[in-house]
From TrEMBL:
Pfam families: HTH_67. This is SalK. It comes from the Bacteria. It comes from Micromonospora cathayae. NCBIfam families: SCO6745_fam_HTH (NF047719).
Length: 276
């Protein structure tokens, strides 16, 4: 299901209307909008909770953005901007779809998001606690955001349980074919990357040539399986029949959203959706 709802959320990172909405409230530059918009459900927080919950960013990069962004826009303004920009982006991408299609999809995705378990899920819980949106596209985006942050919280927990720190996680994924922008775009230095790579070689997750070993692949598969298991409750609550219907409804939305997501994107979304 992640491959169907994540594209709805990530228009907030890749669509020009989303960036324009952040700029309209004073958050100029990509990373100001990113950190303010994504952290806003936590309130006017400093860098420490964001370093912990976002996980993959170098602390120095987070500290350059927070708490300074709150001098430019309040969390409430950032929340309004992120929803406005996302809805405008989705409206441009999905204008051909009938209203009843969007309403039914919003009803089902909102029902799934309403079943997220808040315990231990800081970003998921903070997004779930926001007031429900009124219009279908806003409801869709907010529900997708709650579900992706809930899943992300579980993924961070699985990585920590596997003994992986943020830069080791990125170094392994890059060795496994992910775009290097995941490392450079999150503020880690070459020195930090090389040290992380050496640690992965030392624990047997990478070969001396820097390629994923069988042990490394198995270890990361276990992380992904733990992530999926931790994210399963909303879909069990929704039930197989409604999940299948939601997948059918989200497919054309997700495919339209993929048109603005660049290949080799730093989120790891597959270019094409696979058939379930």
């Amino acid at each position: 299901m992640w491959t169907y709802y994540e594209p709805l959320h990530v228009v907030t990172y890749f669509h020009p209307r989303a960036r324009a909405a952040f700029e309209a409230v004073g958050l100029r530059g990509y990373w100001r909008g990113y950190f303010a918009g994504r952290a806003a459900p936590l309130g006017a927080t400093g860098p420490a909770p964001v370093v912990a919950t976002f996980f993959s960013f170098a602390p120095a990069m987070v500290e350059r953005a927070l708490p300074a962004v709150w001098q430019l826009a309040s969390p409430e303004e950032a929340l309004r901007a992120r929803l406005t920009g996302a809805v405008q982006a989705l409206a441009e991408l999905t204008y051909e779809l009938p209203e009843e299609h969007l309403v039914e999809a919003a009803d089902l995705l909102e029902a799934a998001a309403g079943a997220v378990e808040p315990g231990g899920r800081v970003l998921g819980a903070a997004n779930a606690a926001l007031a429900l949106a009124e219009y279908p596209l806003a409801r869709l985006w907010q529900a997708a955001t709650t579900l992706r942050e809930h899943r992300g919280d579980g993924h961070v927990a699985a990585l920590v349980a596997a003994g992986l720190d943020p830069v080791e996680t990125l170094a392994f994924k890059i060795a496994d074919g992910m775009a290097p922008i995941m490392l450079t775009g999150r503020g880690w230095t070459e020195e930090q990357w090389h040290a992380a790579r050496d640690r992965l070689v030392g624990r047997g997750w990478l070969t001396p040539e820097g390629k994923p070993s069988e042990a490394g692949r198995a270890g990361f598969r276990a992380v992904e399986e733990a992530t999926d298991a931790a994210a399963a409750h909303p879909w069990r609550a929704l039930g197989a029949e409604r999940v299948a219907r939601l997948r059918e409804l989200l497919d054309p939305l997700a495919r339209r959203c993929h048109t603005v997501i660049p290949p080799g994107n730093p989120i790891g979304l597959p270019t094409l959706l696979t058939e379930a």
